[in-house]
Amino acid sequence: MGGEARPRFLCAEAPFESARVVLLGCPFDETASFRRGALFGPDAIREASDCLETYSPHLDKDLEDAALCDLGDVDFASGDTESVLASIQAEAVKIFQAGKRPICLGGEHLVSLPAVEAALGVYPGLAVFQWDAHADLRDDYLGERLSHACAMRRILELEGVGPLRQFGVRSGTREEFEWMRAKDTLRPLSPEAVSAALKETVDSAIYLTLDVDVVNPGEMPGTGSPEPGGPGFDALIDCISVLSDSGARIVGADVVELAPELDPTGASAVAAAKLVRELALVLGA
Ligand code: MN
Ligand code: MN
Prior knowledge:
The protein is of the alpha/beta class. The protein has one domain (about 15-285): Ureohydrolase domain (Arginase, Chain A, 3-Layer(aba) Sandwich), CATH 3.40.800.10. It has eight helices and ten strands. The strands form two sheets. It has an eight-stranded parallel sheet with strand order 4-1-5-10-9-6-7-8, sandwiched between helices. The longest helix is centred in the first third of the chain and has 17 residues, at about 80-95. The radius of gyration is 17 Å and the shape is globular. The model has no long low-confidence stretch (mean pLDDT about 95). One manganese (II) ion (MN) binds near residues 132, 134, 211, 225 and 257. One manganese (II) ion (MN) binds near residues 133, 213 and 257.
């Protein structure tokens, strides 16, 4: 982990040993297909969290009651994608094997792949809930199989992975949509749909991967591949409330694809930080 002093997420003061939820920064954006900048996501989320309250009125929970640890960023010894993913996986394995729940701060969407692989070591049959404007099911993108546009396809190839549910997807190839319709993975991002999907996966632990571009770009412009349309921020909060109220076993999560410099107002980073706060409260319950 990085040795220099780094910003830390809002009241993430717990040492690793006593933490329930562990934040892990994954500043990687090498494969972003349209505009880069997700590299700066983890620190932007931490800095923006300063302007949030620790109390969530939606969940009626306070982060001060959650044992939250911020491990800092994964150290990437070399720049090639496979070794970066291996480094993330090694850190995530430590968190899962210690019985704790990570929230990875992206970074581009490919960082979910090693996190899910690490989770499967502890939770075979893990279900994956993807909140995303894009299907991310391509077999390759311009010949590259390790691309953020292929993140879910690679996750589906992991041994032992359970059901996938894709919420809010509104962009993809004809083949991706044919696959999602045939496999019945596609859902609207609404409280009713999340609640129904929880009932379908009631026997599984769940990993939630939240690509911030699922939010309408008017409310979340700071992302590399904005996709017009989509739910507003409040709809996501309502869906997270469903996760909280249902007592769903969300054992890991990530918030990916924030590219803070693409939103000069800084509001996208604050929105992403608020999503991290709400998820930390859900995972910490
Ligand atoms: Mn994505
Ligand atoms: Mn996306």
